[in-house]
Amino acid sequence: MADVTLRDVARASGCSVATVSRVLAGTRPVGAETARTVREAAERLGYRPNHVARALRSRSTGIVGLVVPQIANPFFPSLVRELERALHAGGRAVLLADCDDDPETEAARIGELLGRRVDALLLIPADERRSREVVVDAAAQVPLVLLDRGCGPGVADSVAVDNAAGMALVLDHLAATGRRRPCFLGAAGTASAAVERRTAYEAGAAALDPTAPERTVLGDFSVEWGRAAVDRIWPSRPDAVVCANDLIAVGALQRLRQLGADVPGDVAVTGFDDIPLAGLADPALTTVCQPVAELAAEAARLLVRGPAGAAVPGPRRPVRAVRLAPELIVRASSARSS
Amino acid sequence: MADVTLRDVARASGCSVATVSRVLAGTRPVGAETARTVREAAERLGYRPNHVARALRSRSTGIVGLVVPQIANPFFPSLVRELERALHAGGRAVLLADCDDDPETEAARIGELLGRRVDALLLIPADERRSREVVVDAAAQVPLVLLDRGCGPGVADSVAVDNAAGMALVLDHLAATGRRRPCFLGAAGTASAAVERRTAYEAGAAALDPTAPERTVLGDFSVEWGRAAVDRIWPSRPDAVVCANDLIAVGALQRLRQLGADVPGDVAVTGFDDIPLAGLADPALTTVCQPVAELAAEAARLLVRGPAGAAVPGPRRPVRAVRLAPELIVRASSARSS
DNA sequence: AAATTTCCGGAGAACGTTTTCCCGAGGTAG
DNA sequence: CTACCTCGGGAAAACGTTCTCCGGAAATTT
């Protein structure tokens, strides 16, 4: 009972393997009577198609590889979940690989996935430039979409949130609620999210008040850095602390409270990403919510390239870069200063 | 260059496909000279074995299916990560499925994974009893290990933390730091973690002070319930609030602060699981840390059943249930009351 | 009525491995 | 010298699909 094959169904229904395959796959019209008999036999025997054999013959596994830098990074689980959902809706399964933030491991895992003949790759690159080489290599073999973070211009199709728009939302909100002396807690490095959010803040803050001194400090995307950064900027008494992501913001929130600052009375704090932790912080964190489901859906859509053969026409097919608009989630940490 | 097959390597090295397979798989001794030639040719052509063909022939995909109830549940990402790591160490890849806490979806996903001919299944059941039927079905077809939550006795091999031992650690700690009037914020339902932690608390509390009134309230494993539950128990002024997991504890912490209670001065709060959020709460949460890496390693170990053929000898092979000892993480929320 | 097309179904060749046979050469034992 | 292994290697059969030919019958056209 474990292994019923097409042969068995063919024998039981008194016709050929080819016919059974056709009726079950619906790949070619087949006589109504025969079809019924076949379907019945298949049902009765409990036939279940063997995806492995199918994959070998049709050269398509229906599996896409998903490589993430750190599944434990709190922003990724919801993204992974939506990706899994979106891909599954298209009949594709997800082979998961975690590369532990290491570009070399990343390269190795990509190699293995290719060996397993995934139909496509979904990749959140671990490093802006050190991931590049492997990515172009892989992209030459299968459809590949970069997610959340970029990997240099023109390397591959990519989907991400519009970081600049998100930062603009934050700055508008702060201005509208009377904040006048913001500062920015960002991340150094060349990761696209870090760069985009940083430059968007600088542009927006300058537009708001060209005469204001610019207060920006850069570290990494962590709670610890958020805490430490507060000590650097608090002496200048900003009335708003704009953070490059939620982890930094949570750290800032903790340290500000320790220092006896009133949030949001004395100072507003904002984050970015809207990880689950953001709503649970105290006070709850105003942040920019990434349209995770849409990002996933868009990525899934980009994965299907034209009808197979069209995959390798021009080596310089134009690269598509999708940017989706985020949404501002206003919570207690930026309530209007009275 | 995309598809170099054994045939190509054979042709290039002037020997037969069989020989090439043998030398590359190392499945049978082969002449030193020939081996060298073959390896050289393979290297030169950039041969990469086709896992799909291999799987078809050898009836083993090297893929294990992992079904989780909700990847976004904050306890799972770290577990998934360690599982992926442990399995990858054994040369196996992970096909991920999220069933959205729904037993029917769970059943469907398990079916698909079996259709894809996974070698084994790793399952965190969505529901203690409604998942049972599918599980026994699946377990009859491939090695299957239940993780974190049980699914009725004797259904399949399982790996989980020793909830009773964890709860005992908590109670000992509270007793040692002078807490005398604990209460318990638990979860209703039959999920094994909920039941075990609840009964362990009751047994431990009774042993501590048989005359103490028992204060236990039951809801679900959520922050919201933690907040709500505090309103129910705070009037009786416990000096310790023991929670069935970290989410409940975080909610309790928030509500207690709102009510003006001093944690840990007036009352200690403890959690369970040690999710990332626990260390970031304010005050940082004392909790029970699950040995995630060991759980994963043990699960991976259980998956390899005797040498293939031994898989279906007695229909009533004894079921193995591994329980691993947790560790108490003492943080600020239970500092000794002075 | 003959010629052409359409329709349904079967035989069998792929897909890229692994593995079972089989064969010949050389070595050892009898 | 014959008989029997061992050893290195090849031919070919699986594994379970899909898909391309092909052939015959029925339906349509000329």
TrEMBL record, chains A, B:
PROSITE patterns: HTH_LACI_2. Residues 4-58 form the HTH lacI-type domain. It holds the Pfam family LacI. Keywords: DNA-binding, Transcription, Transcription regulation. It comes from the Bacteria. PANTHER family: HTH-TYPE TRANSCRIPTIONAL REGULATOR GALS, LACI-RELATED TRANSCRIPTIONAL REPRESSOR. This is LacI family transcriptional regulator. It comes from Streptomyces albospinus.
